[in-house]
Fold this protein.
Amino acid sequence: MTSAPLFQTRQGPLAVLVAGTGGIGLSWCRAICAHPDLRLAALADVDQRRARGVAIRLRHPELPVAGSLAGLAAVPADVCVNATPPDAHRAVTAAALERGLAVLTEKPFAATLTEAVQLTAAARAAGQLLMVSQSRSYQPGLTQLRDLVAGLGRLGLVSTELSLAYRPGGFRAAMAQPLLLDMAVHAFDAVRLVTGARPVRVWCTTADPPWNWFAGPAAATAVVELTGGIHHTFTGSWCSEGLPTSWNGRWRVSGEHGTACWDGDGPPRAEPSAAGPVPPTPVPLPPAAGDEAGLAAPLADFVYALRTGTVPWGECGDNVLTMATTEAAIRAAATGAPVAIGPLLSQAQREAALCA
């Protein structure tokens, strides 16, 4: 018996509405304009003046502009790209799904795990693809690291170190947990891709250096226990001056047959134990690309999924695990106690059902 497809597929040119026209929204617009199967159809932003400015910068001043998706109801569309701040993700994604659009949303999935569960249920009910763009999980070096790790046998420890002096302004500067919700979420997603394991439990502490220029703590250390006895340690800071790491972080994976490392920019490398298999030789990586090219890979994956029905990385039902890890870290930092993923997901599902 063949199971029903998870979401509706679409053929032919795809018309795209972009919600949110800040810096990342502009980058998404440029990536959409560069894709041969996509047509930018309209822009929505609470700041309509900013949206009109983006249309002019893209040399498409004729694009319809509105303060919300509701204001674009008369514009034919197939897809919505949600590039709004996290607090707006739920409302924008829900409105797009209700309209019958497939949705590609910026990470994090939503502001809370309960909202992410609600949106997953809404996507399932609508029969539409809802994909969370975890763009850093598409880095070629991370894919090569995953291939190297596959030859290390059973895994033990994974570490990710991130050290940057980041002064973004805007909504990130005002977030209660800027590093965990907006940046560590990438590492929590990538470690699942690299190891193939699921999160089980999370410990976390945050730090607030005296020179911190964010409203919330911009430094944290989290330990994520994953299935198979793997432990992932994330240590990061967005207010660390000097000797920066890559934006992808510095990675080290230890297994029974050796160790693999990745500096976040160049090709990863592995050193096997005497009894371990010879690791594959990573090919040189292309030069680092700008924001638009960094979004091209998840955008292409999204379009391929819509064409074929293939479930992409970042599909909502799976990305809930990334969001659960992130919320578990935030809660653990607040309480000082470890947070188990299973009960946290069950609680979010109960809360989502009460709101249905």
